[in-house]
Amino acid sequence: MQASEERAAGLLREGQANGVTESDLPLQSVYRWERERAARIFLTQPIGGKAYHWTWAEALDEARRIAAYLQDQHWEPGTRIAILSKNCAWWILADLAIWMAGHVSVPVYPSLKPDSVRQILEHSEAQACFLGATDEKEMASGIPGGVRTILFRTAPQAGGLRWDDLVAATPPLLGCPTRPAEDLATIIYTSGTTGVPKGVMHSFAAIVYNAKTLGTRLGLTAGDRILSYLPLAHIVERVGAEVLSVFLGSHIFFAEGPETFVADLRRAQPTIFLSVPRLLLKFQQNVFAKIPQRTLAMLMRVPLAGRFLKRQILRQMGLDTVCHAACGAAPLPVEILNWYRNLGLNLTEGYGLTETLITHLPAPGAFRPGFVGRAIPGVEIRLGENSELHMRSPMNMLGYYKDPQGSHQVFTADGFFRTGDVAEIASDGQLRIVGRIKEQFKTSKGKYVAPAPIESRLSAHPAVEACCLMGAGLPKPLAVVVISEEARKRCSDPQARAVLEDSFRAHLDEVNAQLDPHERVAFIAIVEGPWTVANGVMTPTLKLKRPILECRYRNLIDDWTVRNRPVVWETAP
What we know:
Blueprint: H1 2-17, H2 26-36, E1 41-47, E2 50-55, H3 56-71, E3 80-84, H4 89-100, E4 104-108, H5 114-124, E5 128-131, E6 148-151, E7 161-162, H6 163-169, E8 184-189, E9 199-203, H7 204-218, E10 225-228, H8 235-248, E11 251-254, H9 261-268, E12 272-275, H10 277-290, H11 293-300, H12 303-317, E13 324-327, H13 334-343, E14 347-349, E15 351-353, E16 357-360, E17 380-383, E18 388-392, E19 399-400, H14 404-409, E20 417-425, E21 431-436, E22 441-442, E23 448-449, H15 451-458, E24 464-470, E25 478-483, H16 485-490, H17 494-512, E26 524-526, H18 546-553, H19 557-563, E27 567-569
Parallel strand pairs: 1-11, 3-4, 3-5, 5-6, 6-7, 10-11, 12-13, 13-14, 25-26, 26-27
Antiparallel strand pairs: 1-2, 8-9, 9-19, 15-16, 17-18, 18-20, 20-21, 22-23, 24-25
Helix pairs in contact: 3-4, 3-6, 7-8
């Protein structure tokens, strides 16, 4: 750990040069808001359709009581404590309590299988686990027997200590215990697109540097509001929702579930909205299900009616108050990005990794389609061998937990992190991500193809829900596509199916016209869906698990190919 500690010790020095001080750190910030904004609302949690609120004073009182309980266990400082739950107010309070008690938080995706949960808790050597609502009913079975379980109010009925009981029985922690900037704050496990998740270690200095720099770039204030619904186990939501709100002293809202999502958005009236491509695609498809795409496009071109319609669509989605919207995790088709911007949503794409935090986001007025903006202050970038993006900044991870060899391998001798992403840097510093080096495949003609940009273009078709490009060892790539439920229902009518096939054929021709000859897609195969986290083909951040998909459809490729059609179906709709 010595090299990690030395790297962490330099973070605050670098941060101070960019305006980050001890008083900006998370615990110092929450104590300040406890004093200065005691009666202002910090957290809003819906339960059964009713919204519950915590002021800063009330939130800190609960966090202090849980912190006191944790300290009473006399665990060694730096003990790892897991949080396994969908986003909720107690998630944030538990994180603060863990930090106050001198320990390290280990967030766990609430969509993982029990075996994956067990793997993470055993690898991190977690002594306790806060448990809330999860996607898997049997998720608690993945918690090892020796790990103490503390149940949020949203947790399923299971054995363990209840949060509310501990709050009622434990006096609050006195004083304002703080942590050094270089202390390990959290271990965030990667989503596992290419294998076993790795535990990424980050210090307090790194996460607050990221939050403060992003807030300054966007001009955010305590008056901003965010709806936290992307997994808090992911670094984008952790920094962009939790740490940023703690730094600003702003208001965090939560969503109760998919059924109430739009109502929760309307309650929050967010000024900040974070999303991922698949969700934005679903929102757009919901609009097209009500108004056909061609009709909507025609209406939006009418000056007065178009402006009114655009405002109405944003209002119906609950996004009419958003000032800053950002998308990440995977490329967003430019056509979809421009569609949202045409509605009036200030949507941009950002970039970052679990190991580097959020390094790129366009400054106001600097948006360019297909690019993720220039590096935020303090981030140095360059291109290495095979155009791999290298980064050095105060937010680079301390290392992988229990993996010094792996930590050493991903850093260059001069301290740049090897991202594994192929990138292009424009003359003005704007960054474009081409794709992952490991995802590139070689056709039988010896040509390399990067799938992500092609998938992004194909996904711009309004019926596409998910797309995976394959082609290793084949003469040409092919696209395996899942269409939306609405589109599949329409295809029960042969005439509607023929119309959809024609539109896919035209879309494929349009996409291929923009590609080099070796990249051109031979055909589109429409398969049964959906592809989800639950059925194992997507990560908790909604990225494709390519090896699993390639294995699933490998035996069908020969049959699809001999049909010699631009659009084939796995089975009849």
